[in-house]
Amino acid sequence: MEIDFSRFHQTFFEESFEGLDIMESALLKLDIGNADSETINTIFRAAHSMKGGAATFGFLDVAGFTHLLETLLDQMRSGQRAVTQHDVDLLLRSVDVVRGLLGAARDNSAADMNAVAVLRGELEQTLLSAPVAQATAPVAVAMPAAPVAKAANHWRIRFAPHASLFRSGNDPLRILRELGTLGEMQVTLDDQKLPSLESGIAEDCYMAWNIELQTECSRASVLEVFAWVEDESDLSIEAVQAEAPVAAPVASTEAVKTAKPQLEVIQGGATDTHKTSNGESGSIRVGTEKIDSLINLVGELVITQAMLAQQAAALDPVLHEKLMTGLSQLDRNTRSMQEAVMSIRMLPMDFVFSRFPRLIRDLAGKLGKQARLVTVGESTELDKSVIEKIADPLNHLVRNSLDHGIEMPDVRAAAGKDAMGTITLKAAHRGGSIVIEVSDDGRGLDRDKLIAKARERGIAVSDNAPDSEVWQLIFAPGFSTAEKVTDISGRGVGMDVVKKNIQALGGQVDITSAEGRGMNILIRLPLTLAILDGMSVSVGEEIFIVPLNAVAESLQPRAEDVKSVAGQGRVVRVRGEILPLVPLRDVFHLGAGITEPQKGILVLIESEGRKVALMVDELVGQQQVVIKSLESNYRRISGISGATILGDGRVALILDVGELVRANACDQAA
Length: 670
Known about the structure:
Elements: H1 9-29, H2 37-57, H3 60-77, H4 85-107, H5 113-128, E1 153-161, H6 163-167, H7 173-180, E2 183-189, E3 209-215, H8 219-225, E4 233-239, H9 253-258, H10 288-312, H11 321-344, E5 346-348, H12 350-353, H13 356-367, E6 371-376, E7 381-383, H14 384-405, H15 409-414, E8 421-430, E9 433-440, H16 447-456, H17 467-471, H18 495-504, E10 508-514, E11 518-526, E12 531-539, E13 542-547, E14 551-555, E15 562-565, E16 569-574, E17 577-583, H19 584-587, E18 601-607, E19 610-616, E20 618-626, H20 630-633, E21 640-645, E22 651-655, H21 657-669
Parallel strand pairs: 6-8, 13-22, 17-19
Antiparallel strand pairs: 1-3, 1-4, 2-3, 5-7, 8-9, 9-11, 10-11, 12-13, 12-20, 14-18, 15-16, 16-17, 18-19, 21-22
């Protein structure tokens, strides 16, 4: 029976890219000169699994290249070769090459074979050189050789695969082919009675194998051959005395090497050696489009539940007690379902943070600097869609900290600092938002230099402007204080894009800095782009939603606290602070609505360290709303970030707080 292995390709690629991430992370953690054996084994297992999968699915370029990595790593983990900086650098560059080969295989495109050839040559040259042993004399590199006639070790192996091993598209015969390269091998099958041929399921055709292997290799080397199927089989490897008889072969090594999978349809086939769990995994892979569809359906359910609750509010709770009880239960279940579904899309921040150790290592080397990365709150979870969009802004901020913030080692030493700078990434939940901080202990921002550069570019800024306003100048388009342009930075392109991308996610970015001591960039983001905690406000007959994380407070002003400024509209004094007063009625040109501030309600909203007082008719209440894109369903509206459907079926617009604050705060400053 022919098996279509192409249906397993996507899983192979996903697992292989995850394996590369594991390899890269572990390589960066290796302590040169005192490498942890478990870390090396982790790297080896990832390379070994990738090589085996690539060979199974016919990606020979990947399999051939990872075989070289596996050989080098095997020397390290066996103690034949000391872990050196050169070898770690070589392995990290090899990870990049394998990533390119996998991408080309996945996309059916051409890989950069010149880069592959160059690195392959370096790996082969490294393997041909005598490895330096950590505890013993140098040992020659073990290269694949013909089976030995007389081996020092004799291993008796029993291998009983589970049905799941075949259903996942693996080829157990590959095990025998790999064992055949280690020494002389003889294989017999269990003489158990086969079940009747009734199920018609080809994957249920499996029996236990008894293998006699004579080899110079250790038990650990033999065990590694089975590493990729160990969780989906029952396996035992026992040493046999040298004089022990060897069972008569039923299949020669050469026959096994060239054999193709032959499956017969049988019923069941389970033996008493099987584990009760049958090796089944505790997780499954689901396409994001299915999750998105589920989230949309739950959103519609939330809206329907709100509609029912609003209609039931007009009923007598005594006469309709059972209905009210049912609606209350529906409300609880809907919220539980909503939380459960939303949690499916949540990923830990380590998904983003894990890419930066390699970035800092490579970039620091290129700049001639020394830097370490400290991460805090890697397990803090954020919606997948937000994580994917915040990755690039964080990448730019980290690069900026290393390039502009961290000084050269001699400069730091002269200033009494540690020659090695520190860049810190933090993530934490605060209320209904996530806060991400990028900080460094570098030179910090120079206030006078920023103001001078701003004026040079025609940007008006007062000498008495608060620090928070001056620091925001680095986000101005084309703004840069770099003394020279490099391929890393200095063109003034990027920081403005960073801010725009963060704001597009409904986030805010604030900066604090101390000259000579470093800088801290704080980003506030919503946990998800699908659900929003908001405050409902009314203007005339219209309802608007104000994101709750942007609301500082609400109040009813006194008439004497409201003043008019010639040519600039009205302002309001709130505990000694003068704020622009912005009637929401005027922003959206509504005919109805309260015109006198003391008769309405002021909602103080905050963004980028600045506040604006929105004037509305009244506060309707606080609620969680399902966000609908207005731009994709209608068009972009200034001051509006989206829309939602209320319980009575009406559409309410969600305010873009950042845009409203920027527009009106700038007008006031002008």
